[in-house]
């Protein structure tokens, strides 16, 4: 067994789509990044790559490479998963938490889980996604950005 942890943050700005776990969530702002800035998919990719000692998402997909401009992060996640599997690992489970003051994410959680499970070729029951506010505290609490933590086990 191998354990992995991933953490990512992206800034909330106007005139960007808010994409979390591959779901386009209606909101007045979106996350800024070189890719679609799907902070949840990035944290999960980093957890998987970390567990397999394959570096992190920025190693696989450099943020100065034009081919990743506006990239669908679920596709980047699927590539990361393929690298993990090529190294001989299977994925036991993924558990992630999104830190966002707004918008309310609960209505979108099941669709996010389905998207992540599909990108990772996993049963739905192996993918857990949760959301929490930080009670108005810090940069997520002020609505300046959204963060995500993820852990995974590889077998
Ligand atoms: N952006 C968010 C944040 C939280 N939730 C859900 O609300 C519950 C209570 O949030 P607390 O920060 O007070 O723990 C939380 O357990 C989530 O189910 C949400 O949907 N979207
Ligand atoms: C995903 C990549 C891909 O270009 O770009 P960003 O969307 O900026 O995301 P980040 O988590 O800052 O770093 C990883 C990048 O390599």
Automatic annotation (TrEMBL):
Note on how the cofactor is bound: Binds 1 divalent metal cation per subunit.
Site location (Transition state stabilizer): 34, 133
Alphabetized InterPro entries for the sequence: MECDP_synthase, MECDP_synthase_CS, MECDP_synthase_sf
Pathway(s) the chain acts in: Isoprenoid biosynthesis; isopentenyl diphosphate biosynthesis via DXP pathway; isopentenyl diphosphate from 1-deoxy-D-xylulose 5-phosphate: step 4/6
Cofactor(s) named in the record: a divalent metal cation
Gene Ontology MF terms: 2-C-methyl-D-erythritol 2,4-cyclodiphosphate synthase activity; metal ion binding
This protein's record includes keyword DNA damage: no
EC number(s) reported in the record: 4.6.1.12
Catalysed reactions, semicolon-separated: 4-CDP-2-C-methyl-D-erythritol 2-phosphate = 2-C-methyl-D-erythritol 2,4-cyclic diphosphate + CMP
Superkingdom of this protein's organism: Bacteria
Function: Involved in the biosynthesis of isopentenyl diphosphate (IPP) and dimethylallyl diphosphate (DMAPP), two major building blocks of isoprenoid compounds. Catalyzes the conversion of 4-diphosphocytidyl-2-C-methyl-D-erythritol 2-phosphate (CDP-ME2P) to 2-C-methyl-D-erythritol 2,4-cyclodiphosphate (ME-CPP) with a corresponding release of cytidine 5-monophosphate (CMP).
Protein name: 2-C-methyl-D-erythritol 2,4-cyclodiphosphate synthase
């Amino acid at each position: 067994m191998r354990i992995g942890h991933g953490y990512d943050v992206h800034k909330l700005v106007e005139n960007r789509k808010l994409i979390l776990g591959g779901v386009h969530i209606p909101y007045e702002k979106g996350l800024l990044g070189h890719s679609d800035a799907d902070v949840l998919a990035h944290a999960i990719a980093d957890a998987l790559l970390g567990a397999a000692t394959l570096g992190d998402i920025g190693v696989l997909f450099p943020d100065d490479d034009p081919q990743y401009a506006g990239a669908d992060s679920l596709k980047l996640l699927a590539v990361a998963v393929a690298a993990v599997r090529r190294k001989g690992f299977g994925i036991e489970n993924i558990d992630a938490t999104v830190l966002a003051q707004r918008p309310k994410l609960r209505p979108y959680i099941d669709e996010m889980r389905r998207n992540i499970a599909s990108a990772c070729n996993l049963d739905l029951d192996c993918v857990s996604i949760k959301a929490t506010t930080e009670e108005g505290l810090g940069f997520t609490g002020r609505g300046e950005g959204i963060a995500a933590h993820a852990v995974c086990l590889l077998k």
